[in-house]
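hey can u check if this looks right to u? its 217 residues, i copy pasted from the old doc so theres a chance i mangled smth
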Amino acid sequence: MLVVALGFSVVWILGSLWMLKRSMRSVAPHEALVIMRSAEPHVAFSRALVLPYVQEAYVLSTKTVEVPVQCVGQEACRTADNLKADVEVSFWVKVNRTREDVLRVVETHGCEKASDPEFVRSLFRRKFVETLRTVVRSLDYDALEREFPKIGEQVVRLLGPDLGGFVIEEFVVESCKATALEHYDEHDPLDRQGLARLDGSHRGQAPVEPAADAADW
């Protein structure tokens, strides 16, 4: 009888260890594990115990996603003195690795969508374009030329810290140069002002003259 009891205990212990091993879930360094429990969701950034048939677990990517923004040609940014600038920048965003922000993202978008780089790009591209245009519009062309290394600070500050659980990890100015004359519309009052500006103090100055081979800043 004792032997049977001991055998049963050994089987039970081994079975429990096997079940515990199968229930332990791990995630990669750029992922978060969201466990839906009866009380409240739990977030783990390395590994956690997930009870089978009782709890559901989802993996959320917290990998950095590049959101390229190109305001060039007809879509170029306009400066305060109505000149146009072709600006290409890249925002690098990711889900902030805190419990609160992870849950905020999951509740708003779901793990599958929020882990899709294309969805993240579509989520932020329009907002980033509008903010970039606003910053460039606040500067005249000469100021933009002088201040472009700091333009990222202004853009990030204007966006503010609340991005719905996401954060901007990096902002890079890829290219910033004068827009070619062919993208000015003489029937547009603002473009006419810009052309008049070019015909005056700016035309002929290398850093400002729109040209196909204009150097990046």
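Residues 14-20, 202-217 have pLDDT under 50 and may be disordered.
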